Amino acid sequence: LSARVAIIEAFNPAGQGPAALSALVYGLENRWGKLPVTIYPKAYAATTTLQDMAFTNRSYRYYTGTPLFAFGDGLSLTSFEHNCSCTSSAVGEDRPATCCCGLRNTGARYGDEVLMLYHSVGAAVRAKAERVHPVPLRRLVDFTRVGLKVGEHTKACFTTPHVRFALTNARGEPTIYPGEHRLIFSRGNGHESSASFTL
Questions:
Q1: Does the pLDDT of residue 67 top 90, yes or no?
Q2: Closest C-alpha to 197, from 87, 60, 107, 112
Q3: How crowded is the C-beta side of 133, counted as CA atoms within 13 Å?
Q4: For residues 140 and 71, what is the distance between their CA atoms, to the nearest angstrom?
Q5: What DSSP assignment string belongs to the chain?
Q6: What is the pLDDT of residues 10-66, one digit of tens each?
Q7: Cα-flanking dihedrals φ and ψ of residue 71, to 5°?
Q8: Are 199 and 128 in contact (CB under 8 A)?
Q9: What is the pTM (predicted TM-score) of this model?
Q10: What's the CA gap between 182 and 91, in Å, rounded?
């Protein structure tokens, strides 16, 4: 696709959706969302079947290829930057991960931005867990939406309890693995930042 081409995925906008879409397209509003699915390249269809219900190489959690459009992708009519930090690198049953992100509108107009929080595991935890069940590359655990005027700055904080660092085992049960875990902060475009924690 050309860099000058934009695609709007509206799914089923129903009765009121077209009015909202026209306001967005003509610049009357700037409240875009993020893609809630992974859109694969054409060649992906030859690698799986509709009957295959395994998670292997499927969805943003397990797909190792380069998607045509990734889960969480999304643009705006303005630009933003973010910077995140956390208060502690240790997480426990009574000690959640507390992280705050500064988010600034660096563009020329008002706009909404969505900041997403993903969980991932370190190499040692991944190697141990993958012996008995699939391990996602990352998993969305939280998000927030903020609206900012031109030049405006705000702070968005996430409190992530230790249960959100769990992986799902082969029996479908949440399992917390001791070791290194990561939280990844993403706006769906531009740079990502991350913080490491020990459970």
A1: yes
A2: 87
A3: 14
A4: 10
A5: --TT------S--TTTHHHHHHHHHTTS--------S-B--GGGGGG--TT----TT-HHHH--S--SB-TT----SS-EEEEEEES-SB-BTTB-EEEEEEEEE-SSS-EEEEEEEEEEE-HHHHHHHTTTS---S-EEEEEEEEEE-TT-EEEEEEEE-GGGG-EE-TTS-EEPPSSEEEEEEE-SSS--EEEEEE-
A6: 888 888 899 999 999 999 999 999 999 999 999 998 888 888 888 888 999 999 999
A7: -50, 130
A8: no
A9: 0.93
A10: 11
Distance in angstroms (rounded) separating the CA atoms of residues 164 and 98: 13
Cα separation, 83 vs 81, in Å, equals 7
Amino acid 181: pLDDT: 97
Q: Which residue has the tokens 């391990």?
A: 135
pLDDT averaged over the chain? 93
For the stretch 89-103, pLDDT in tens is 889 888 999 999 999
